[in-house]
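Thread: magnesium ion complex, take 2
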Amino acid sequence: APSPDWVPGPDPARALAEVRALFADVHGGEPTGVWAAPGRVNLVGEHVDYAGGTSLPLALPHRTLVALRPRDDGRVRVVSAWAPDEPWEGALADVRPVRHPDEDRDEDRDEHEDRDEGEDRDEGEDRDEGEEGDRSVQGWPAYPAGVLWALGQPDDPGWDVPGADLAIASDVPVGAGLSSSAALTCSTALAVSDVLGHGDDDATRSVLVDACVRAENDVAGAATGGMDQQASLRCRAGHLLLLDSADGTVEHVPFSLEEHGLVLLVVDTRATHELTDGQYAARRADCARAAGLLGVEHLARAARGTSVEEVLERLHAAGADERVVRRARHVLTEEERTHALVELLRADRPQDVGPLLDGSHASLRDDHEVSSVELDVVTEAARGAGALGARMTGGGFGGSAIALVRTGDVDAVARAVTTASADAGHPRPQLVAVTAAQGAERVA
Ligand code: ADP
Ligand code: MG
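Output below.
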């Protein structure tokens, strides 16, 4: 049987040396500073941020570092150790938004309720091609360039953003559902904020969150709901971030598994499926439709003061089709699970949250239909080998799962998910045990 593949732990000193060397190599001299922002995993509260729901992410010890030095000629030059042969240089004034992927799709969705995967595929490909051609910045540089653009938008926040030289290095696995994109945008945003002397309070962090969301959605053309950026910018070490997406308020919930003999394992399936953005936009549209039929702004809050069953009955009565009802059921039950999980943590009972994690996975798989066969295989294998609970995390359609595991069962679970993936003919997953780390900060 294949042996488990453990992701190397983060190495902050190495990453700092790497980003400094890259900066000196490409731009010459020293950056003004270096800023770091983490990837994240979400413990529970998935696919609810765009429905005004509650999420519970934690920051990873894995971070993206941005070295930055302002320029006075309005130009932007970026290079990343992740794609050293694809640097980008351009005028900040030439960075433009693309049309939001959701806007193209929301309208025609209602007319094609029962389209199958094949039809989705064709449309997704057309859409992607059209959009790529539209972009003022192609590929990964759209993320950092988009942040500079967003922070300079006259409507909000209207900062006087200078051109800049940037170099990037990262320990965050890219495209694994651990939010390397938010780690990149958030470290860039904090760097800009700091060199502009904006201070570092909660209000400023919220401005940065919004700018990063806008950069991803509007310039990189990647649909994102805000949870990732909130987590990367606002998490605290040793805590989960209890995030209410309806109003952006947060609470910091103490989270330390070690004293309970528990480990949070992240399993990157290394399976990526195309069309994630199209599917994501479709889920968003379904939830927006349910909210519209109910006449509420935030679908996730609709069962407050009543019950999930009652809300679903009202949806039926309002003429919602079966698929929209299932999407709503995911959001509403996920909201219940998240609050139940927080209560267990506050009662110092982390060992009892497993069934809520399992329930979240089942709901995401069956009602929201955002899991994948790889995610189903690893979560089932983890449970079979003694994990207390396991679920997909992040947007789904591949990416990563999490498993809550007793310290003594870690090896067995790691072997089980590796073997099960091999038996199913899937890629060998990558594993990492994570702790709740600090959000974005200046490191040099
Ligand atoms: P995730 O955020 O889950 O890792 P995404 O698809 O949202 O996956 O974001 C991955 C994209 O973000 C990459 O394809 C790349 O464009 C950009 N990106 C992330 N990290 C880096 C990095 N260190 N250097 C350059 N680009 C990065
Ligand atoms: Mg991302």
